[in-house]
Amino acid sequence: MNKINIAIDGPAAAGKSTIAKLVAAELHMVYVDTGAMYRAITLAHLEQPDTSFETLVNAIDLKIINDNGQKIFLNGVDVSERIRENDITLNVSYVASQKAVREKLVGIQQEMTAAKGVVMDGRDIGTHVIPDAELKIYMIASVTERAERRLLDNQQRGIEANFDDLVKDIERRDHIDMTREISPLMKAHDAIEIDTTGMTIEAVKDKIIQLARKINV
Ligand code: DC
Question: What beta strand segments (E) does the chain contain?
């Protein structure tokens, strides 16, 4: 397959990371979860709340290792699991709306995609980070299904969760992500929308693989 980039955007808990990881593995591409990068900055901010975002993003050492999944290191410490906890999820949309944070992370993401061969998921990948991506997917699902998926995911990670709180948190984050001033979440004009409500992971993955193969014939 020729080298292409695939951008997968959509609201919180729509299944982007799960699918992006599988698509990348099957197509021998590199998977990048950009939400994890915003989560790592959120952890740094919670640890140093008095530091300005500009100083914070310029001082931290953020390393992303993409090898059969993604590991993220903040100042030399593996924070891949820590960044899934509730305090991070509650604060991440606010941190992700900061100009200094977005500029820094978008720069890193654009470097990671320059040589192509990347499946990158997030909120502004098709609209802003790689607007020239060969394939753009906009993945959505009903709020109840997204909350159910997040509940299962949290239970598997041993994170305390309750369905009603998850619904509220997903709606709150969608609102912040969609209405923020800088590169809000929206469907790129050339993105293909997939509503994953009621679809199996396998079916969504197969659909994207099919679309990717069509580009490369
Ligand atoms: O995908 P996630 O839930 O891990 O993302 C966490 C937050 O990061 C999400 O609420 C919005 C923000 N985000 C963003 O603004 N831009 C991205 N490209 C990825 C995530």
Answer: 6-9, 30-33, 62-66, 70-74, 77-78, 118-122, 135-140, 192-195
Domain 6-204 is classified in which CATH homologous superfamily?
P-loop containing nucleotide triphosphate hydrolases (3.40.50.300)
C-alpha 159, offset from chain centre:
19
Q: For the full predicted model, state whether its pTM sits above 0.85.
A: yes
Ligand 1 centroid to residue 152 C-alpha, Å? 19
Helix (H, G, I), strand (E, B) or coil at 47: helix
Pairing of strands 70-74, 62-66: antiparallel
Tokens of 104: 């820094």
For the chain, the structural domain boundaries read: 6-204
pLDDT, tens digit, 9 for 90 and up, residues 83-94 = 999 999 999 999
Q: How far is the CA of 217 from the centre of ligand 1 (A)?
A: 33
How many residues are there in the chain?
217
Which residue lies with its CA nearest to atom 5 of ligand 1?
Answer: 35
